[in-house]
What we know:
By secondary structure, the chain is mostly helical. The protein has helices spanning 14-21, 25-33, 50-64, 69-77, 83-130; strands at 11-12, 40-42, 45-49. Strand 2 (40-42) and strand 3 form a beta hairpin.
Amino acid sequence: MNKPESDNKDLFAIADLAREFGISTRAIRFYEAKGLISPERVGATRIFRRRDRARLILILRGKRLGFSLRDISDYLSLYDADRTQQVHLLAEMVDERLASLERQKRDIETTIAELREIRKLAQERIATEKA
C-alpha cells in the first residue's frame, strides 16, 4: 500500500497543507495566530514540519467533532508534556461533548414531534374548512 506523497515528506508549504486538507491558507494562518501550530519561517515563507501537519489533523478533527478552539488548544498544550493527563483531558472533553449532543438530540426530537403535531392540526383545519 502506497502512502500519500505528503506522508513521505518532512517539510510542507502552506498551500500543500491547504490543498491536502481542503481548507484555505487563511484558515491555517488563523490556527497559527491562535498558537495552535507553529511553523518555522524562512523570510516571509512558512515552513511546516510533520509535527505541524499532525497538529493540523488534530485541530481539524476536533473542529469536526464540535470542540471549541479552547478545548483543542488545551488538548494540544499537553501533546508533548504529559500523555496521561492528555488522555484524561480527552476523556473529559469527549464526555462533555457527548452529553451536549445527547441534550441537543432530545431537543431536536421534541421539536420534530411538536412540528408534526402542528402540521397535523393545520392539515385537519384545512380539511374541515374545505368541507
